[in-house]
Amino acid sequence: MRTTRTRLATALIATLAVGALTTACAGGSGTAPTTAARDETVIIGTGATPQTLDPVLASDVQTDFTVGGAYDKLIDYDEDGAIVPMLATEWVYNDDATAVTVTLRDDATFHSGNPVTAADVVYTLDRIKALGVGVASFLSSYASSTAVDDTTVEITLSGTNTTFVGALSKVYILDSALVSEHEGDDHAQAWLATNDAGSGPYVITDYTANQQATLERYDDSWRFDEARPASLVYRYITESSTLRDELKSGGVDVATGIVGTDLDALASVDGLEAQELPSPLQLFVMMNTQEGITADPRVREAIKLAYDYDGHITSILSGRGSVASGLVAPTVACRVDAGPTEQDVDEAKALLEEAGAVGATVTMAYQAQIPEHQKAATLLQSNLKDIGLTLELQTVTYPEYVAMIESPETTPDLGLLWDFPYYPEIGPMLFRVYDSQFIGQTNYALYSNPEVDALLEEGISTVDPDAACDLFTQAQEQILADDVSVNVSNPVTTIMLRDGVGGIRYSPTYQLFDPTMLVVTE
Hints:
Keywords: Signal. Pfam families: SBP_bac_5. InterPro entries: Peptide/Ni-bd (IPR030678), SBP_5 (IPR039424), SBP_5_dom (IPR000914). Residues 1-26 form the signal peptide. The chain has helices at 10-15, 61-67, 118-131, 164-167, 176-179, 189-192, 240-249, 260-266, 297-306, 309-316, 345-354, 371-387, 398-404, 426-434, 450-460, 465-481; strands at 41-46, 75-77, 83-85, 88-93, 99-104, 142-149, 152-157, 202-208, 212-217, 231-236, 254-255, 272-277, 282-287, 321-323, 361-366, 390-395, 414-419, 485-491, 493-498, 501-502, 519-520. With 522 residues, it is of the alpha+beta class. The chain is globular and about 65 Å long. The protein is built from 16 helices and 21 strands. The strands form five sheets. The chain has a seven-stranded mixed sheet with strand order 8-9-10-1-11-19-12, covered by helices on one side. Strands 14-18-13-17-15-16 form a six-stranded mixed sheet. Strands 4-5-7-6 form a four-stranded antiparallel sheet, with helices on one face.
């Protein structure tokens, strides 16, 4: 077993404790990652702190952002929303889109040196189905798969689904020979939480939970690019002001999650550049439609009308974003633009009084480590007080929130979160978030409307894209009419880069940016 550690600058080592992570680099012909000096290392500062490195939870932005460089997908999307090949070179649906045959490239190897084969694809998909968490919500129509030979996989679906191949853009392929050695009784979740079993351009070589991860370039990657940094170091920093200061001092080269006031303070700093990317993100307040006072649509509408949307954009986002005008961001095709919601305190008070809910208390779970969420929670608390509601706030991680919504009894009245299409098709997101079969999983509002279910399920199985869009449009209109959520904002993704680092561009399957795009420019 060979591992390497990146030698960082003395100042960086002094401030961070780096824990060893056992990597899959033994046995095989793969080239071990080389140790890089500080000038060959790009340090990323981010508040996207993973709870696990298991790629089954790549549905979580925090996990996806760290593991994205260490694993390969079968397919991906380019910045124009077109599917592009990755490990897969070809994919063909059968006549009724109930099965798809995938052909793999034959020159990819895992970090262990094991070849990437059809058996690894089958193992990965079966593991996702067995666990039923994370990216499993994108693969609900997956039934089974078979390795025909080393480079051919036949995937059987439970019904017609023309969007299934797109969902594979969120599936990272595992080294089945390696992972199966550590399966235990949890499908290797504990082992993969801190270990690497990928074939991506980088190997995870060190990891200290909540502090730091180190990735070193895998020079035997089928998509090797010598312009990439020899090492990537993720420093998990949740405070925007700390990220700002680390950029100024040189302790961080790339940063995400900096609030508007700190971005303004960095605008005049030499050697730094702000890059704004379109974003699929949207900030929501999802309302419990089954339990408590938010089961009353009048209360849900009152909460929606109470919020200070303009204040959110000007004060929280410093103008870097817009008020949401539908269920998805403007970057997504086939969306219904209902126009931005406007605050109306008087109408909110009248609705609350009509519902007999004046003076009531509601609970809201939110992720305090995300600056926009933290400030939005405080603003909503103040706005609801103005209409006669007391808002109790509960800080959670995203996995904790997902566990809370497993039953109506533990689901909070409100949940503040980002959501978005994980790949650029609107139907799968609507299906995942609003179809009643996903109550207890990814239907955050516990929303159940048979008419919407029928529209979404027909849309997912409709081969004609125009007909499918019409069905998804009807579903959106009904969901919006039911006031299931407060549709808050569409923030712009702002990345701060130090001179000498570049390559970032919009990638619709990454909520922040694709770390494998980073290059050293000087």
